[in-house]
């Protein structure tokens, strides 16, 4: 356990402490549920014979990236150079920055990190989607005082509408540009469809990924015709991974949220082949004010992200359900919609399932890992969020 | 400047650095604009002869709380015990926890902090809205190994619909309960109307605060009849402070956002008497990907809060305006709605005005303070966000 001297982030939980004594609000990981999620994902990847490189933008903990590797994951994905640096400092040596990096100051750090990881027997990969980006990356790699190389994935837009070049010839042109630089190794295609993850209907997600698979396959074939073999197509998230895994074209799954499962992913219509991932990240909260109309708890949107919906109140029977409404930065409002339900009284502890894990984890310096369940378990470990606030 | 060894939060800005070299995304404070906002607020409070105790839940920096005190502010408000501890560690000695605290473990910390501040010649205040809360607070104060007291404000709900008892007799009963405990000093009424701050129309805000003033005055009068003088009525935010200041009943303004001014507050229809607060907090961002349809920048909702709307792209002439759309945790999408406007190219720096300052600041370990304007200025100071992530 790493104690922080900073009073603002001082942990009010200790190893061996009973769950009911953890002060609120607090991010708590059900380690048993998390371990089951890892096992389900490992089994799934083995069955489909695909690599998995879970996205560490979700959990941001070097300890968890290493834990996933021990269970078969092949390295970690990140979105930011500073996330890669934080994981590397924590012992992770196989890292893919699945995003475009443009600033020369950052690319110099990329080149240094590539060298550091190579010395440790690991490797660094990065995504590109422009000639400008490739040129700048090559310059940074050549300016570095080392002969380390970097794996380069060409990002194609398979329906996300964000970064990436269009599939087909634009991607071929970029891949050819990559091969012009000695330090850049063309590693394949990045074909992640983020928007598809959150389509609620199973059929919608299936159709979206069918289109992504067509685009990825056509691009791979065009590259082959141009004389460029494609070592790997990488992509997929927790919402769609069954389709990428069965596609025959994706060789690597980047899904990260399966580890903690959030309320948003759980709202998707279930795909039968999808492993039954469980919620493993919760916000423990406490009622601090009570009226006839509503109760107020101490977890607001400084405790959990609200970009993908408000949290849900967990572990209550349907006829006692509580509805969480936004009460601002530091408060949540609790309402009952059932006449039988009673509002919780002052001091009552409740558990929230966050709408979206990734930005929720980013709000916290540590996650409190509990073994033995949330009703009667104890604190087993404190997980440091190494890449919290890692933006550059 | 405090350097952090943690690679994730390593600062990629240094004192004396030119603004254009600050790496992105980065939270940047225009110190000249901030200083003008402080002067405007100090002049306003002096003219209306009211105290001002700016809410530090917004800036979370002990250095800024002290800066405000030097300009006439009377201490700082916070929402959390850990925020109070962080400010106290940074030298602030007059702190009001304007929120209900219920957990015995936290109340023990409250009692310790009350003692620490008293020793340093300062004082601690706290809000209550239940008999249970008063009893628990009194027990914690009496269990502490000191004779320090604490100022206690009874929170009344003047339209917010969150914490607080109803105005009138329920508040009288609580104030009487406070006076039953030797260590608790009844300090007055907390009558903050948070919802009113964000009503867009000036007339709507005026009417909402007129009702709040009636409720606060009726409660004060009922307390006087019961033999309890009311030393202070405290409340008001940046959206409504002109009305509380002119009310004759509010003696203290808690407004905090005026310091940085966010896009949400700037969207309010301006009240003529309102000081002309300027935007002083910006997110510097950079274009990392470009297509015919849109550009993508490196600031997503891990860089800025989106609870009160998306950020706005600053400093562009109307015919070159860019519209920011949510691109997820780490990306922003930029669109042009004008046929004349051109999408920015890769590497272009842009400035975003966050929708809501408070949770935006909470995402960052440091704020980069710039002197001399955002076009040609230099980094003058790094402001440590002492109470970042202070939730308990």
Automatic annotation (TrEMBL), chains A, B:
GO biological process: D-serine catabolic process
Residues annotated as domain D-serine dehydratase-like: 280-371
Domain of life the protein comes from: Bacteria
SUPFAM superfamilies the UniProt entry points to: PLP-binding barrel
Family matches, as InterPro entries: Ala_racemase_N, D-amino_acid_metab_enzyme, D-ser_dehydrat-like_dom, D-ser_dehydrat-like_sf, PLP-binding_barrel
Transmembrane segments: none
UniProt keyword annotations, A-Z: Lyase
GO molecular function: D-serine ammonia-lyase activity
Family, similarity comment: Belongs to the DSD1 family.
Protein's recorded name: D-serine deaminase, pyridoxal phosphate-dependent
